[in-house]
Amino acid sequence: MAKKQEKKEDKKQIKTVKQEVEKTPNPMSLLAFEVKIGIFAIFYFCFAIILTLGLFKLAGPVGQGLYNFLTKLVGVGYFLLPLAFIGIGVQLIRSRQNHHFRS
């Protein structure tokens, strides 16, 4: 009998925890659109820096692993990847600024 009561209490606790989790908003949903774009632009810039350092074997084991994987995947095109990621980051920053002035 005590076991049944413990199970009911456990189920109630699990249910209340689930309800509390559902009530808490997603942190990303609280950020403004411009902030999200800025975060992604920073990630693109950082990834471009890691790829560039990996090219010169200065990015440590993670950079070296990325370099080995991506050179096998795209070959000589690896040299264009940092430029592409920098271009994407710059474009995101520009679109963020344009979006800000439109509203």
Characteristics of this structure?
103 residues; mainly alpha; 81% helix; elongated
Question: Can you describe what's shown?
Answer:
81% of the residues lie in helices and 0% in strands. It has 103 residues and is mainly α. The radius of gyration is 23 Å and the shape is elongated.
Low-confidence regions:
none
| Biggest sheet layout | none
> Helix tally?
4
Which outline best applies? Answer: elongated
Q: Give the SSE order as H and E letters.
A: HHHH
Report mean pLDDT, rounded to a whole number.
84
Instruction: Output the structural class.
Output: mainly alpha
Number of strands: 0
Distance between the termini: 64 Å
Sheet-strand content, in percent, reads: under 5%
> Oligomeric status of the shown chains?
single chain
Taking Cα atoms only, what radius of gyration do you get, to the nearest Å? 23 Å
Helix content: over 70%
In short:
With 103 residues, the chain is mostly helical. Helices cover 81% and strands 0% of the residues. α2 packs across α3 and α2 runs antiparallel to α4 (80-102).
Structural topology:
Layout: H1 2-23, H2 33-55, H3 60-74, H4 80-102
